[in-house]
Amino acid sequence: MSLFSLEDKVVLVTGSTKGIGKAIAMRMAEQGAKVVISSRNQDACDEVAGAINAAGHKAIAIACNINYKEQLKALVEKTEAQLGKVNILVCNAALNPYFGKSQDIPDEAFDKVMHANIGSVHRLCQLAMPGMAETGGGAVIIISSIGGIKGTDALGAYAISKAADMQIARNLAVEWGPQNIRVNCIAPGLIRTDFAKALWENPEIYEATVSKYPLRRIGEPDEIAGAAVFLASKAGSFTTGQTIVIDGGGTIAS
Q1: 194 pLDDT band (50/70/90 cuts)?
Q2: Count of CB atoms within 10 A of residue 242's CB?
Q3: What is the CA radius of gyration of the chain?
Q4: CA distance 187 to 194
Q5: What's the rounded Cα separation, in Å, for the pair 178 and 162?
Q6: Helices (DSSP H) in 10-114: which residue ranges?
Q7: Residue 105 to residue 126: CA distance in whole angstroms
Q8: Taking residues 137-141, what's their average pLDDT?
Q9: Does residue 196 carry a pLDDT above 80?
Q10: Active site residues
């Protein structure tokens, strides 16, 4: 069996109807996983799950708003009822309603970022990881950002939340390692997604960014998906508590 095989693994990916989350879900399905597609919009979930099933793989669609614990609980319960215990959890869904200096961010926006980006990861892990332990282990992958390891004058609250993701991974890796559960982060640089469109569609920001990237370009969602497959599979079976930076070399050159 391939080191990257995910045959018959139950994979839950939040924010998986577009961008990085969708790429991860589709590539894991190609490796044999049974994938749960989840975002706030049921129709969007149905569309992506349908495409995966049409390609001969296995996916189901369960809508969930990560801001509500009862919906996170229902997401895990419905997954377990339809597919079994979660073996691999990918916490990808996040939000950033504010672009600008920390001094000017409204309290409501700051609290919203922390609740969604940190709180939902914490709660979803609480809900899914005991089931992983019952089945002999598993893997959690948190999609963070290089914003969590660099200073910023425009993404303050978001960057704080992404730094917290890295610490959540370290804490849970220590806590759950004895139960054979691995927890890691991926920290992407600028990736061509709708979420980051405000950055890469702005010519000035784009040029300023890629001029500092040794590869002189931004990344594509599949370039994050490959790392997620590695971390979820036997290929990554001795990797835990880490943050893998995938940024075209940006953080080492600027």
Answers
A1: confident
A2: 17
A3: 17
A4: 17
A5: 26
A6: 19-30, 42-54, 69-82, 107-113
A7: 30
A8: 98
A9: no
A10: 158
